[in-house]
Design a protein that fits this description.
The protein contains 24 helices and 24 strands. It is α+β, with helices and mostly antiparallel strands. Helices cover 36% and strands 18% of the residues.
Length: 780
């Protein structure tokens, strides 16, 4: 079989930069194209649509890709192996470039054999392309293979004499390859009856773990913003060349690029969705862009950057999302189909200068910046992405931002772990219900905490003896007989005792009653233990006020364990117990004491109680460690959130920015400018004092003084929930403000100088973080 061009050119194609997964994907694209043609034709295909990739078992092994497609004739096979030829439609197929096959096989190994057969053929026919044997006569060796069943059909591609580095990668990275292909082909594997196997294991589509279609948040308490926005925009039909693939500008009878007369009118459509992921991730967020069902861009973040058309040449724009706690990552995601937009030959990028790409970006994110008032000359951005940005830019725990929490703060580590379980196929995590219940639990715990604080400040019942004294009754009232009234007149009364036989509540009934009126504590619901003691899976529940927690002897206890079958334990905690209410003991401290006793008995350990508690805490509650790094990071996270809220309040309420900026000292202004430059925000330096951008970079202690200087701008629910404007007395205003600024000063100091803090200072700092977080307003 004659092939063109020469083997030398084919060898040079192997130097083109394709990753190993791209090489495999090129060999998967073609059978998927064949399957799509079969589906479009309506032909019954009882043998199924399967592509199987066999990976090399050693450095001298082979890579084989086989499919159950229609197979090829000799003439079509001869055309298919010529570098530069493509029989594929440039607009409906995955295999867009004819050289993809040649590039991938030459990059993988020195010899490739292609065998193909159709139903009814008596043998497999094929060609062997040996880059070490083919001369300038362009002749490749024809090969055949016997066929046991004439009804068999499909194509096999066998690559051997593999390049050692790539062979080793393929041998070791089967799971990684499956995951990548599962992401690239996720839409096809979900929406089409295709099966892809790699190394004998079926490739599962890597689906997006997004919030459901019916979830939403209320922005400013009134505007409903959905967590899922469908996109379907049909553009004006265009004329495209079937030979070179170019879309035509204007009307003509021949292609303006290649001169072909093979032109056709085709649909141009942008469709898919934008939404919100159920968890934050440092890398796994952004928009997936697809062409003909294959992902060209995955987790793409370029739509989060606004390109200012009036910016200075060479000045790079900064990403607008994520902005709050950016180091934790983002959660805005999407899947957008752009079948009409041209891509690069490696299928890892679109042609970003093409008008069709620019039009798609404008439709999704608009022409104005996502951040309000960043460019005052532009009207408000009402694009789909801007709407999601407005509703979900912040990551506060609770219903306002649709983020699970533990009653105090978000539980990002837990939600990421749930996301991994979603991808693993765990039934409990397929819908968003697990995340949703965690959001509701956060709100319930937070509500109960506020109710408890209110109850602690108001006596639960009147002082009966004080009331009696005020009315003139004697101290010891008899239960029957004659009493003397307040004016000396005898008053006769009697009390009749009625014997009521009470049925004693069983232990199981009592525990069931506790559980029915309790709410889960997500942070303390986890495995507890130590490698030398074993582990128990603990579900921690907080009792509601009014029902004291009693043990089997009827005594009040702060924590009660209900040991279930196996290694499962339910821990009941009474937040109203004096150990917590009066002495401020942490729930975890007493829970660990109870668990230590259980694990000591199970493991028959001779460790002392303090050793047990210390070991279990170190192993199971590592994120509660009290050191400068951990607590300092918690403080800086909260400061970042407060900065964002302060900046948002300045923008939202049209607070005069130059006046706000002038509250900084000259030294603090210099420090703010240096912090911007160090963070790579050079573009913001020129706007210092003209917008709220300085707030994100000002020294932490300067933030305290800004709140002290402008309390009317940040209290009363603007940033902090404490009252100010409506308080009549100066001392009352000062007290309400001090509740905020006192804790804010602690957190600012801790966030800046946590490295040298003592244990007592760290404890104070962590308490200030909790108190300050509770002072934040519930709505932004």
């Amino acid at each position: 079989m004659k092939i063109t061009p020469s083997a030398r050119v084919l060898s040079m194609l192997g130097e083109i930069d394709f990753d190993e997964w791209q090489c495999v994907a090129e060999l998967v694209d073609n059978p998927f194209d064949d399957f799509l043609d079969i589906l479009r034709s309506g032909t019954e295909w009882p043998d199924g649509f399967t592509v199987s990739v066999t990976l090399p078992s050693s450095a001298k092994g082979v890579l084989e890709v086989r499919d159950t497609g229609r197979g090829m004739s000799y003439d079509r096979l001869a055309r298919a192996v010529r570098a530069g030829w493509s029989g594929n439609d440039k607009h409906d197929k995955l295999g867009l470039f004819g050289m993809g096959f040649n590039i991938s096989t030459a990059r993988l190994g020195r010899r490739t054999r292609i065998l193909t057969t159709r139903a009814g053929d008596t043998e497999w026919i094929g060609v062997e392309i040996d880059l070490d044997q083919i001369k300038d006569d362009f002749e490749a060796k024809d090969i055949t293979e016997s066929k046991s069943d004439p009804s068999h059909h499909g194509t096999r591609i066998i690559v051997d004499r593999l390049q050692p580095t790539r062979a080793e990668w393929l041998r070791r990275n089967g799971a990684s390859l499956r995951n990548t292909l599962g992401s690239v082909y996720s839409w096809i594997l979900t929406e089409r009856p295709f099966e892809l196997y790699v190394g004998g294991t079926r490739v599962k589509p890597v689906r997006h773990c997004r919030w459901g279609d019916d979830r939403y948040v209320l922005y400013n308490g009134k505007e409903q913003i959905p967590a899922y926005i469908p996109i379907d925009a049909k553009l004006q039909d265009g004329t495209a060349c079937q030979d070179c693939g170019e879309w035509q500008i204007g009307v003509g009878e021949v292609c303006s690029v290649c001169g072909s007369g093979n032109l056709t009118v085709r649909e141009r459509r942008i469709h898919g969705w934008l939404g919100v992921q159920r968890y934050l991730d440092k890398t796994e967020y952004g928009i997936d862009f697809l062409r003909n069902g294959r992902k060209i861009l995955r987790w793409d973040k370029r739509v989060f950057t606004w390109n200012n058309p009036h910016g200075r040449e060479g000045e790079e724009e900064e990403p607008e999302y994520p902005v709050e706690l950016a180091h934790q990552g983002g959660r805005l995601i999407g899947e957008i189909h752009l079948d009409h937009v041209p891509v690069m030959y490696q299928k890892d990028a679109f042609e970003y200068g093409d008008p069709s790409w620019l039009a798609a970006v404008e439709l999704l994110r608009g022409v104005a910046p996502l951040q309000p008032k960043r460019a005052p000359a532009y009207p408000e951005n009402e694009s789909p992405l801007a709407l999601l940005f407005k509703g979900f830019r912040r990551n506060d725990a609770g219903l306002r931002c649709l983020v699970p929490g533990d009653g105090q703060k978000p539980v990002h580590t837990d939600t990421r772990n749930w996301g991994r379980k979603f991808q693993a196929g765990a039934a409990e995590f397929q819908s968003d219900e697990h995340w949703w219940q965690a959001v509701l639990r956060h709100e319930e715990i937070k509500k109960r905490g506020k109710e408890a604080k209110t109850a602690a400040s108001v006596p639960a019942q009147p002082d009966e003896q004080a009331v009696k004294d005020a009315l003139g009754f004697p101290i010891d009232m008899p239960t029957s007989g004659t009493a003397v009234g307040p004016v000396g007149a005898p008053t006769t009364f009697s009390t009749t005792a009625v014997a009521v036989k009470e049925e004693k509540e069983t232990r199981s009934e009592r525990l069931a009653r506790y559980e029915s009126a309790a709410s889960p504590h997500s942070y303390l619901s986890r495995p507890f233990g130590h490698p030398e003691l074993g582990y128990v899976k603990v579900r921690t529940l907080l009792l509601k006020p009014g029902d004291p927690l009693l043990d089997d002897r009827g005594l009040s206890v702060p924590v009660l364990l209900d040991q279930r079958s196996g290694n499962e334990v339910t821990a009941l905690v009474d937040p109203e117990h004096s150990a917590f209410r009066r002495f401020g003991t942490d729930y975890a401290d007493l829970l660990l004491v109870e668990l230590a006793a259980v694990l000591k008995v199970r493991a028959r350990s001779d460790w002392s109680p303090s050793q047990l508690v210390a070991a279990i805490r170190a192993e199971s509650l590592q994120d509660s460690v009290l050191d400068g790094t951990t607590v300092g990071a918690e403080g800086r996270d909260l400061l970042t959130e407060i900065r964002a809220r302060v900046a948002e309040a300045i923008d939202r309420n049209d607070i005069d920015c130059p006046t706000s900026y002038d509250h900084l000292s000259d030294e603090e202004k210099v420090a703010t400018e240096e912090a911007m430059i160090a963070a790579g925000r050079v573009g913001l330096v020129g706007r210092l004092g003209r917008d709220s951008g300085f707030v994100h970079h000002m020294p932490a202690l300067a933030l305290v003084r800004l709140v002290q200087a402008m309390p009317q701008s940040f209290m009363d629910g603007a940033v902090f929930r404490g009252p100010y404007a409506g308080v009549s007395s100066p001392s009352g205003k000062a007290l309400s403000l001090a509740r905020v600024t006192g804790c804010l000063a602690d957190v600012a100091t801790l966030g800046t100088f946590a490295g040298g803090a003592t244990t007592q200072q760290l404890r104070r700092g962590r308490l200030s973080i909790a108190l300050l977080r509770d002072e934040l307003a519930g709505e932004g």
